[in-house]
Amino acid sequence: MRLTPLRRAGLLASAAVAAVATLALSSTASADEPTTDDKRATPYTKNIDIRHPEACTVGGLTGETIHPNEFTYTGGDNQIHLNITAVLSDKTITGVVVKGGPNFNVYLAKDLGALPWNELRAPFNDGGQQPEISHWYGCGVKKDTSTTTTTTTTTTTTSGSETTTTTTTTSATETATTSSQVAATTTTTAAAVAAGESLASTGFGSAWLVGLGAALLAAGAAVLLVLRRRRV
């Protein structure tokens, strides 16, 4: 099929419009996707600040907002870079937001590592230039607090050296038992000697006394008898 000049012109115009549309879409896509040369950061486009409801929920952040006054830093607002050397807040930092122009960088604490955090910055602007920082803030959560009580006993020797030992005190209750011993008193009662029974022999002989008494009685009787006869 042979193209007429009019039809050929129409096709060329359509191709030109398609090319312009593609270029416009590409430019728009590039403008919507901010970039940064800091590998520690993730860039976003949004008009966000410390008072924004999503201030500490964007980019994986958690916790509450922390004002710049609670950091020790150099640079920051109206500067290209921000250098954080210390955190004065009693919260655990989860990240830092650095904004410049329409874009901002989110720095998560796990990607920043240990302090100091140097040369934090905003993403590139639409012209590919590094903009000044318009504002920044931190995010953090309350620290877990635990109390540990340790009882220590310190002993100082005569040589002046000090020895510290941890001791555990155990209270032991001792029950004292008192034994009372009462001397037993034994009372022995001698049984009465039954009538007609002889006393037990004790080793002392008394039979001769009985015989002597009988002899004296007999002698006395004989004397009385003799005296009576003489009177007769």
TrEMBL record:
The keyword Signal applies. It comes from Lentzea alba. Residues 1-31 form the signal peptide. Residues 146-172 have a biased composition (Low complexity). Keywords: Membrane, Signal, Transmembrane, Transmembrane helix. This is LPXTG cell wall anchor domain-containing protein. The chain crosses the membrane at residues 207-227. PROSITE patterns: TAT (PS51318). Residues 145-172 are annotated as: Disordered.
